[in-house]
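Researcher: Here's the sequence for the chain we discussed earlier.
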Amino acid sequence: MTSIADVRAIALSLAGATEAPHFHYASFRIRGKIFVTVPPEETHIHVFLPDQEREMALTLYPEFVEKLLWGGKVVGVRVTLGYAQPDVVQQLIRQAWIAKAPKKLTAQT
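Model: Thanks. This is the structure I predict for it:
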């Protein structure tokens, strides 16, 4: 199980990551690009992963990861925090950050 406080700590520990509102959601960004959002009910998170990482997460963790649709298109995964494994949540957040961060920044970590 992972809490929103855990998600926040993981996301903000990544180089250059910031938190900002996104409509009614909290969002974590790297240089303005969103890599995670938190809906108001705070029971799950949206993680914006590249296709390959998304498909792997959907296959490996169907008990707490599902497709995230936006306008009919799959754009990431929805992670149900009450069932999620903390190390997996950390890994997914990091993968999303890597996908959005400048390569120069990811090379330093």
